[in-house]
Amino acid sequence: MARRRVVLASTAFLIGAGVLPATAGDDWHLYQSHGPLWHATHRAIYESENRIAFLEAAPEIDDGYKGPIITGARAGIRRLDATLQPPRWRWAVQCCYSRKPIHLR
Predict the structure, then answer these.
(1) Contact between residue 92 and residue 30 where contact means Cβ atoms under 8 Å apart
(2) Distance between CA atoms of residues 35 and 73, nearest Å
(3) Torsion angle of C-alpha atoms 81, 85, 89, 94, degrees rounded to 10
(4) Cβ-contact 45, 81 below 8 angstroms
(5) Ramachandran quadrant class, 47 (left: phi over 0; alpha: psi -120 to 50; beta: rest)
(6) Is the distance from CB of 27 to CB of 92 less than 8 angstroms?
(7) What is the rounded distance in angstroms from the CA atom of residue 99 to the CA atom of residue 73?
(8) What is the pTM of this model?
């Protein structure tokens, strides 16, 4: 009887341990509280930054051609970034700045 309980407890533990890592990422919605406009703006900034990186990394493209494109893309990024509200992240733990300051003598 005791052996059966040990086997059942071990089996339950192994099955539970196998399921827990699969549910570890279920708290992603805590950090994804932005609306569709924020996501579209963020995606546009990301694509502009990728285009700038591609142009800067391509040595075969003339600097006179890619210079105005990069300047315009950076201005567009600043314009798009100005439309976004500052981030208000919801953290699971308190920030380290909330503790009392340490004074050294």
Answers:
(1) yes
(2) 24
(3) 110
(4) yes
(5) alpha
(6) yes
(7) 41
(8) 0.53
